[in-house]
Amino acid sequence: MLHCQLYYVAWTFNTCHIVEISEMKPDKRRCASTKDREFGGTLGATCIPVFLPLTVLYLLSVCRTPGAALLQWPPPLPPASQLWDPVAAALVLGWLTLQIVLYLFPVGKVAEGMVLRDGTKLRYPINGFHALCISAILLALSVWLGMPLGYLFELLVPLATCAMGLSFLLSLYLYIRSFWAPKHALALGGDTGNPLYDFFMGRELNPRIGSFDLKYFCELRPGLIGWVVINLGMLMKEVELRDSPSLAMLLVNGFQLLYVADALWNEEAVLTTMDIVHDGFGFMLAFGDLTWVPFTYSLQANFLVVHPQPLGPVGAAAIVFMNGVGYYIFRQSNSQKNQFRRDPTHPSVAGLETIPTATGKRLLVSGWWGLVRHPNYLGDLLMATAWTLPCGTSHILPYFYVLYFTVLLIHREARDERQCRSKYGLAWETYCRRVPYRIFPYIY
Ligand code: NDP
Question: Does the pLDDT of residue 12 top 50, yes or no?
Fold first, then answer.
């Protein structure tokens, strides 16, 4: 999913389009010119790694100001003295180590990924939900032993700084090591020969140390589970300040925990997503997974600590309903496509109408994928709205997630369409005629 996640970060500069790289002759597979590049090409790849860390610090700082106005000048960035704290560094490294140990823990099944260009398949441990449960038990134990989880609120800025440092170091390592990878192991869109662009997009598709898959590990574990821990820290801070958690805080925590638990429960489904199948592992995903998700997705809970919002039972019930509808659409559509891609003869999908493509794969044109071309995005956006509504309507800041996520998914949808059009040609055109709306029925 989150998946996070995730080229969550780079919506701003997309003006370019992808060409059919996969069908070029091998010697022409490198992108020939800037028009073949995504996210604004070299300019985007240079600006985004500067702009995004500043955005994270800006949002965290704005959240603490009394007015919490999204647009402020001069920007309330934290002073340099607040960026670093050795406790934060120890927490980030300790957390990463714990998640690595839990990843390596031999529990759960092992699943195969999609077929790679050399005809092989990689194997992945499916134990993310175990990692979530064990992390929760260890956290509960630590709180019971007196760990002040609410202190995460004070530590957010130095924690984010450490996560950023980690993201940059990891991206640098990934870029350097990719020069030892065989040609067929490189992502088609990240091997242009332009160092800035390739550093940003990621050259290697599935970088591994032994059997440890770096991209798959980062996608759903340290950042995603870290996000719910930060949320819980905000809840504990609220309890410290006001003796009990507010209804709004409980809803935000509950909804987002459900989202993360669902992603980990259905971990195998991430193996058919764009992030794993198509995108290389570079700064875009590393920063998204390790910094952007935990520190900007927790903005609502962070906001509620400083700006408590009243919420009555009727409003809460309506928001719960909205989240439930969004979750249902999101889960059903993702599972349907995942099941269909893994085993089209499975009884749950065998009766659905499909159209053939020249690649041998078929496209669903009924069921959820006959409603709109990205029903999973529709569900995700409904949930995003439900996560924000508990924060009231007095400030735009907590709506940052919905606004950003809408832009992200519209951009992601366009990106996926281009890839599918290149892959499936006429069959994709037929699908688009049969299912004319992209995300919102009768609107878009
Ligand atoms: P999708 O899971 O939507 O996968 C898109 C792929 O599905 C296409 O490339 C195509 O691949 C296949 N497909 C498309 N249409 C059909 C069809 N009609 N029949 C069969 N297969 C089809 O991609 P994402 O990775 O973008 O999204 C996965 C989930 O993650 C979504 O729910 C999304 O909302 C969520 N997400 C969340 C983020 C967050 O930050 N919270 C960020 C990004 C995504 P092929 O044909 O090759 O199988």
Answer: no
